[in-house]
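Journal club side-thread
Mid-discussion, someone asked how the predicted structure for our own chain would compare to the paper's figures. Pasting it here so we can look after the session.
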Amino acid sequence: MTNNQPGDKLNPKIQQQLLNHLVVGRDLTVGNINQQNITQIFQLGTPDQPELMRLFVEFVKVITDAGYTPEIHKVPPLNPTASLDAAVITPQSSTPTTSTFEFEVVTVNAQGRETKRSRKQAQSFVEILGDTVKLEMVSIPDGKFTMGAPQEESESREDERPRHIVTVKSFFMGRYPITQAQWRAIASLPKIKHDLHPDPSRFKGDNRPVERVSWYDAEEFCDRLSNQTGRIYRLPSEAEWEYACRARTATPFHFGATITTNLANFCQQDQSMNKVERKQTTDVGSFPANAFGLYEMHGNVCEWCADNRHEDYQDAPSDCSVWVINGNSEYRILRGGSWDCFPTFCRCTYRSFENPQVKDKEFGFRVVCCI
């Protein structure tokens, strides 16, 4: 950063909004900071000082990249006339140690018959959340992919288009949806913004995914986890989620053209088939992983993403950042389908949405971490 001090010229209202967003830790990532995003997030008018705006954008990038989390410290004021307290993260001093794990990947044909089974490897690290509770984070490699569904994909919708190329930087994602044991461990930590129910789920089980959690609950979980570990945890962007789900496949499901009840926990639609009616969540890891080593990306629980709702992909980001610009903030995105969803709602590209305050027995989440 230059010797210029853009913060010295920013009014206290903007300072407070900046600090609030850094405390929340979800709206800003280094990948989505640009002048357009900053203008909307901080409710700035058209900048009459382009150089000041450029410095402000760079300033936000530096702060976000530094790795802030909600530990309460005194922050030197950005403006000499303002004195603000804010939550600042003490970043981890080193990259976590990863290890290799093996898993099986299954491919099926359009009739759901298995055509291939292979062994793969991936890298992961582990966060210790309690005496017997751990969180496994899988390394998702960088790359490019085509986001959205082609016109010819059966039962695809217009909100899954236009298809567009997205460039993805590597990140870590939870190997499984957050479990009830993991939820309890983090819910017992000090509150950041609001209270968390220690046992919200309808279907009980330590290794079952937590459900009946709102988008705000998931955000609070991420904030507390960040505070506890010194790393920045957040909900995935919609683009990150789809990239991770696809795992370099181009079919409606990462298994292939269809899924069966041997591959995922969902509600079977075809009445002529031998139905497996689970009618509830199942333990995480009960079904085969995708090629990145992630489990239950189809079915079990719908997973909250960070993005605001947009009616389609017109003007969507090409860099996998969280998409908030010109979106409807009254709704947030859910992906993956649930135990009570028909197969089409579990496709890689299917987009659902709900008010961020809603808690439902189909709604859960998984976390990502950028290091």
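Post-session note: The helical segments are 12-24, 35-41, 50-66, 180-187, 215-229, 238-246.
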